[in-house]
Design brief:
Blueprint lengths: L2 E6 L9 H7 L3 H8 L3 E6 L8 H9 L16 H7 L9 E8 L1 E3 L4 E3 L9 H17 L4 E5 L2 E5 L11 H4 L14 H15 L3 H8 L7 E9 L9 E4 L3 H4 L11 H6 L4 E5 L3 H5 L3 H24 L5 E8 L2 E8 L13 H4 L2
Parallel strand pairs: 1-10, 1-11, 9-10
Antiparallel strand pairs: 2-12, 3-7, 3-8, 4-5, 6-7, 11-12
Length: 348
Amino acid sequence: MNQLTLALPFALPHAALAGDLIKALQTPALAALLSRTSSSSLHEFDGTTRLLPHEAWLAHALALAPAAGSDDAAAPFAAASMRGFGLVPEPGARYFLIHPVHIEITRKHLAMDDMRQLQLSEADSRTLFELVRPYFDGLGQPLYFGDAHTWFMRADEWSDLRCASPDAAASQNLADWMPDGEHARASRRLQNEVQMLWHEHPVNQAREARGLKTVNGYWLWGAAKHQLATCAHALHVSAAPGWLSALAEPSRRDADPAAIIAGQADALVVHAGLLESAMAQDWGNWLAQMQALEQHWFAPLLSALKDGRLDRLRLVLSHRDGWLDCSTSRNAQRKFWRAHTLNTLSSS
């Protein structure tokens, strides 16, 4: 017996536009998967956890944190992500994820852009990293380079620091999302020092000349202590940012449904391709992405269920305020009296 769990962040449409978006979708396979189910439940999410629902859900699914709906839901991904980049966390040490970002000064508040839109090259990221690394080392909080968008910092004493994920904070009023706790002031002081070091640096001057936004800050989150577990053996990812891809084994960082089904083993797939368009409220692109998922994922998975190559499929579809968790099987797909519909997407 094998089960495939497919998690799709932001596959639930924006509530105000759900009706129109669902009418525009041409996804009969998804409609079948959502209509003929053996179980289906909608979960509300407490946004005060400073995470997005899929982040807390994934941390629990990987046994890194409590259940996503609990009061102490967390996303301690840093140490596991480090190992995916070939870095070796020290036992008992506490590490944070760090992402170079652009912070905009609007008329009313500070706001951070979606880091996917930063267009930061490996070379420029390395230059900015090397510029600030001695300062972090001098504080006893060394930096480690993962990729252009993913760095790590060791800060054993900052266990009290409560941070938000960058996707939760992006495009919001940053005053509501900045780290808080006993060491929040030290965190802000460190952020200010980095901003001064990067201000008018040749990398940023060259970026401005090319019409790109400057890298004028970083975002800190994902604190985790070293754990013995390695990359999640059942996790597959697709269209994922570097920190998330690093949680999976290298051969499973470009998920292919045919290969997963043929493997006849339980699998967890996180496909993050909808995140950027949903966060930018680019619903035209969101619709195009959903149509691509229909062709490459929903239709092949429905076919595999019907012919017995897949025993069970679990879909976890989320938006900012919660997630839909439903399961279907070959027997469930035989419930011919249930009409195919996408209405479940609008009830969320």
